[in-house]
Amino acid sequence: MKVAGIYLAASRSKEAVAGSASLKQPGGITVGAATLSELERCGLDPLIVVVRADDPLKWMPPASSRSSRRTETCLTAHLGLSFSLRCGLNAISSLQPDAVVIAQADQPFIPAALVNRLTDAFEQNPGLDYVASINEGVVNPPVLFAKSVFPELQALDSDRGLSAIFQSPGYKGMLLQSDSERDFTDAELPDSFGELRREWSVPRDN
Asked: How many CA atoms lie within 13 A of 192 on its CB side?
């Protein structure tokens, strides 16, 4: 089973990109580099990093010799999350993966173990359309989407976010409970990245 990865490292504004890329954790590791390094440990193939055309990429760590990482420049990233996501999906479409894990750059504490939980659950339940983590009643990225959802992801626009997929009775998903609030902590980034996070999340009653 082949699972690709899309890392959304573009934002809606040049200022937000600069903030997210250069913001450092203790030890001098940038927010973007920390999450990217964890994703590279998960065997995602390929791992597409979606960036803006004006991103100097100084935050990006060197790829290992075994890394499947590729950088995809999205000229329309300033128009919103759906455009960045579409660029990433276009980059993996010819490789025909069975699923894709989509993560975003404002969560520096996402561990490889969490991503592996998503992929393991999908491999054990290949009929699922998505696998996501839920914490305090809220679905959070990263999320794994099966290829059955790719057309819906391609069609997303600013008026209909990812939460519509989680709420749709037409898709079968699995929510994995996570008790670690730290995993889903947002970095202190500009408001535009917080807005991306809100587009992902959908409250749940249970």
From this structure: 18
pLDDT in tens, 23-36: 554 445 666 787 88
- Residue 95, classed as helix, strand or coil, is coil
pLDDT in tens, 2-22: 999 999 998 644 444 444 444
Give the count of beta carbons closer than 10 Å to the beta carbon of residue 194: 14
Hey, which bits of the chain come out as E strands? 3-8, 47-52, 69-74, 99-104, 130-135, 138-146, 173-177
Task: Count other Cβ atoms within 10 Å, centred on residue 157.
Answer: 11
Q: Is the peptide bond before 142 cis (omega within 30 degrees of 0)?
A: yes
Rg (CA), the chain: 15
CA 62 from chain centre, in angstroms, equals 20
Residue that is written with structure tokens 């193939």 in the block: 45
Q: What's the count of helices (H) and strands (E) in the chain, helices before strands?
A: 7, 7
Question: Residue 49 and residue 36: Cα distance in Å, rounded?
Answer: 9
How far apart CA 52 and CA 170 sit, in angstroms, is: 33
Residue reference for tokens 């919103």: 80
